[in-house]
Design brief:
Length: 898
């Protein structure tokens, strides 16, 4: 059982495809050696050892590793021509964490390990540089104290004891930068640091390099289980079993003087994707200094440096003398770095994020990995590399992270304008995109200025129209699932919710935040992707749906094997979805067409009627309205199928609950308020979601189904007369037994025959059902004898399979997720293990009796990448999702077929 893999001097026992065992860092350090990139020698202890360590503890782990590590260290010593633990020619090493996937900043690294009061002298002598040796020593005591001896404070608020000493020493000396400290100061720091260690831990600082090494190895393994790392794994769904590797590597020194330095670089621009080598470095510095921001980092290329100086308003003279680029300061090392970055990108065939150190003019590479990037860069880099012939079409598609595309579908702030932007407060990033506009405080005033931001304490259903008109929505209260957040996401509109720091006074029409007060008409800006709220007007850019984005989507379509439809009930949503490439509507919810104005009155009239005759009178008035709605929706999808679901929600959702509305309804219908009140009370249900809804409505009040079927078919006939072909699919909701469906189907077909006879013409249509009750999935063979299509309504199916009320799950789901009882919110990510079985069963049994059964999904899951993949593999014909998820589903579906 090999636990240690060495690398160095152009050789390596590992390879880049061994990331599971060696971690990403270790695997790529090995590979860089193999392709002739200069890397300091070292070795990697496997991720499996981390798992062993967690089980057996430090003592036993050291026992298992000792001889292998000693052997590996000998190889490093031979390559570097130094000796670990020697008094005269000491080798110093770094001990670095490195998991399978990069977890930036989550785990710990110790540099300069092997330092003690003797080796520091030898190192000073050898380098002919006292300052460098003592600088390295004080860094080591600090890092070791923080990481291995646990002296780093838990919370950011508490001060690191070492930082505090450092600040005191600098203050006493009256200097700002640590480079201004001289050898005596550094020696003083080492003494003070060690005293702090003794005081806090009760032990002397360990002097034996081997003791230091085992301590650091154990600390890196331990860091896998620190709260930060656990949290990071949770939100990124990284299993705890993976473990981290430990890389022990000969130190190279960027702090040896002005001909040394350290930096990070990207082979392309991680923000825009442009093919421009870029990065930052510091002269006379070590490792983390660049990221930690101890000094202002300098640009690597001259071009980048000039651009930086312009933005930072630094004069050319200052730039060239105080902040020169690496290209200017160390042209030879720069030239080598440029060649190496080119070589690495060509080799790994993806944008690389590099770490390097220059020791006395000589370049060393310390890390390479595929760089993190924005959505725009993700698309551009893949398309550029495809055109450059570096990758093929499939790879370009597979490189896209579907969920990330969301960033590209909404307006964004202009980058140059952002530099000056002042953040007033931060709320929750409820619905992505950028918006700038003039403040209004009431929904019915949303049209008061040409572009507005609607600021409310919270929103309610009456605000819908105003929300639609406003460019962005800001609420002081409410979470990610508040009304404002949910509605805004549905509209694809920028929203920041729950911004508690904003004091909104709707009466006075003022908003106070960040120490300023804004009145109606004042400009503010929102970033719905980050939750930031900005002062003033900031230029925004509309999403660019053509260009590289369009091309990548076309490529995806080339590989995609199933259709992507949209859930839409308004003409506007359907149009947006068409622009995003939807191939039809998978769910058109008819109840949404009854919630306002005249329609709601007629709907109430129908529900509150005493008998069928009364209901028919109201339904006759609803018919032309419905017909026009259907015509509008169908008209946006000419040539594509449109699934229209018959009335689904419990009727009490429509009736007036407030006194005022009950009174006006009483007047409208010519009855007393008490009659209305009584009716409303009668409609009360204990468990409305399991009550009188779905096809149970159509089967108790067949006239509702009759009206809806008629409206759909008449609309289709009218469009046909205009030369526009449509494909309505009439969907019966909440079916649990085949007889329920059969009754509804008969009503629809009888009406169809009547309508066709009346009009003397026909259209093709289908009758099918939602599969959203577990019993329907289990008896799908019977149901498919009647249904021409199935649409899995996985919202209800999840609700009923888990027995979790969707509307009440907020009370326990967060706890379940935190405790790991559930891995994901099953309403967001389809539960393949449980609900997935019902889907498989439903499809299999359904197709047994009806081999040409068309199958799709129309729950929220239809736009969630892992669920889309499941649907493709389960053999569905299409997925359907909200308009703004359509591109994401197109990509996810393509990837599932590759
Ligand atoms: P992280 O994963 O947080 O980036 P790393 O292990 O990569 O941690 O190391 C932190 C910093 O220390 C990086 O800047 C890296 O380049 C530097 N570093 C690590 N090992 C060495 C080494 N052997 N010589 C010089 N610098 C090193
Ligand atoms: Mg690193
Ligand atoms: Mg349902």
């Amino acid at each position: 059982n090999k636990r240690v893999y060495t690398f160095g001097n152009g050789k390596a026992e590992g390879r880049s495809d061994m990331k599971n065992l060696l971690g990403g860092k270790g695997a790529n350090l090995a590979e860089m050696n193999l392709i002739g990139v200069p890397v300091p020698a070292g070795f990697t202890i496997t991720t499996d050892t981390c798992t062993e360590y967690n089980e057996m503890g430090r003592e036993k782990m050291v026992g298992l590793l000792r001889s292998e590590v000693k052997e590996a260290m000998k190889k490093v010593e031979a390559t570097m021509n130094m000796e670990f633990g020697s008094k005269d020619n000491p080798l110093l090493v770094s001990v670095r964490s490195g998991a399978r996937v990069s977890m930036p900043g989550m785990m710990d690294t110790v540099l300069n390990l092997g330092m003690n009061d003797e080796s520091v002298l030898a190192i000073a002598k050898k380098a002919g540089n006292d300052r460098f040796a003592w600088d390295s020593y004080r860094r080591f005591v600090q890092m070791y104290g923080d990481v291995v001896l646990g002296m780093k404070p838990e919370s950011k608020e508490d001060i690191d004891p070492f930082e505090q000493i450092m600040d005191e020493v600098k203050e006493a000396k009256g200097v700002e930068n640590d480079t201004d400290l001289d050898v005596d100061d550094l020696k003083d720091l080492v003494v003070k640091f060690k005293a702090a260690v003794k005081k806090v831990t009760g032990h002397d600082f360990p002097v034996d390099p081997w003791e230091q090494l085992w301590g650091a190895v154990a600390a890196v393994f331990d860091s896998w289980m620190n709260p930060r790392a656990i949290y990071y794994r949770q939100i990124n769904q990284i299993p705890a079993e993976w473990g981290t590797a430990v890389n022990v590597q000969a130190m190279v020194f960027g702090n040896m003087g002005d001909n040394s330095g350290t930096g990070v670089a990207f082979t392309r621009d991680a923000a825009t994707g442009e093919n421009i080598f870029n990065g930052e470095y510091l002269i006379n510095a070590q490792g983390e200094d660049v990221v930690a921001g101890v000094r202002t980092p300098q640009q690597i290329t001259k071009e980048g440096s000039l651009r930086w100086a312009k933005l930072a308003k630094v004069s050319e003279e200052d730039r060239a003398t105080k902040f020169p680029s690496l290209e200017e300061a160390m042209p030879l090392a720069y030239a080598e770095l440029f060649d190496v970055q080119e070589k690495l990108e060509n080799y790994f065939k993806d944008m690389q994020d590099l770490e390097f150190t220059i020791q006395d003019g000589k370049l060393w590479m310390l890390q390479t990995r595929n760089g993190k990037r924005t959505a725009a860069a993700m698309v551009k880099i893949a398309m550029d590399m495809l055109r450059e012939g570096m990758i093929d079409e499939k790879t370009a598609v597979l490189r896209q992270e579907p969920n990330k595309l969301d960033e590209l579908l909404h307006p964004v702030f202009d980058m140059d304008a952002m530099v000056k932007a002042n953040v007033l407060a931060t709320g929750l990033p409820a619905s992505p995109g950028a918006a700038t506009g003039q403040l209004v405080f009431h929904a019915d005033e949303a049209g008061k200025f040409p572009v507005t931001i609607l600021a409310r304490i919270e929103t309610s259903p009456e605000d819908l129209e105003g929300m639609d008109i406003a460019r962005g929505i800001l609420t002081a209260r409410g979470g990610m699932t508040s009304h404002a957040a949910v509605v805004a996401r549905g509209m694809g509109k920028c929203c920041v919710s729950g911004a508690g720091e904003c004091k909104i006074d709707a009466k006075a029409r003022t908003l106070a935040a960040g120490g300023m007060t804004f009145k109606e008409g004042d400009w503010i800006s929102l970033n719905g992707s980050t939750g930031d709220i900005y002062e003033g007007k900031i230029a925004t850019k509309d999403p660019e749906l053509s260009g590289d984005f369009g091309e990548i989507m076309e490529l995806a379509d080339k590989f995609r094997k199933i259709d992507v439809r949209t859930n839409a009930e308004t003409e506007r949503d359907a149009k947006v979805a068409r622009e995003f490439g939807a191939q039809g509507i998978g769910l058109c919810r008819t109840e949404h067409m009854f919630f306002e104005g005249e329609r709601l009155v007629r709907m109430r009239e129908m529900i509150l009627s005493d008998d069928e005759a009364g209901r028919r009178i109201a339904l006759d008035k609803l018919l032309p309205i419905q017909r026009q709605d259907f015509k509008d929706v169908l008209n946006t999808m000419i040539g594509f199928p449109v699934t229209i679901r018959l009335l689904d929600p419990p009727l009490h959702e429509f009736v007036p609950h407030e006194k005022e509305n009950q009174e006006s309804m009483a007047k409208e219908m010519g009855v007393s308020v008490d009659v209305i009140k009584k009716k409303v009370e009668d409609l009360h249900e204990f468990n409305p979601m399991l009550g009188h809804r779905g096809c149970r409505l159509g089967n108790t009040y067949p006239e509702i189904t009759e009206m809806q079927a008629r409206a759909i078919l008449e609309a289709a006939l009218e469009l046909k007369a205009e030369g526009k072909p449509t494909f309505p699919e009439i969907m019966i909701p909440l079916v649990g037994t085949v007889k329920e469906l059969k009754m509804q189907e008969k009503i629809v077909r009888d009406i169809a025959d009547q309508v066709f006879k009346e009009k003397g013409d026909k259209v093709d249509y289908m009758v099918g059902t939602m599969i959203e009750i577990p019993r329907a999935a289990l008896t799908a063979d019977e149901i498919a004898e009647v249904a021409q299509f199935f649409s899995f309504g996985t919202n209800d199916l999840t609700q009923m399979t888990f027995g979790y009320s969707r509307d009440d799950a907020g009370k326990f789901l967060p706890v379940y997720l935190k405790q790991g009882i559930l891995k994901n919110d099953p309403f967001q990510v389809l539960d393949q293990e449980g609900v997935g079985q019902l889907v498989h069963t439903g499809i299999e049994r359904g197709r047994k009796t009806n081999p040409i059964l068309k199958v799709g999904i129309c729950g929220e899951h239809g736009g969630e990448p892992s669920s889309v993949e499941f649907c493709v593999k389960a053999g569905m014909n299409y997925v359907s999702c909200s308009p703004f998820r359509v591109p994401i589903a197109r990509l996810a579906a393509a990837q599932a077929s590759l």
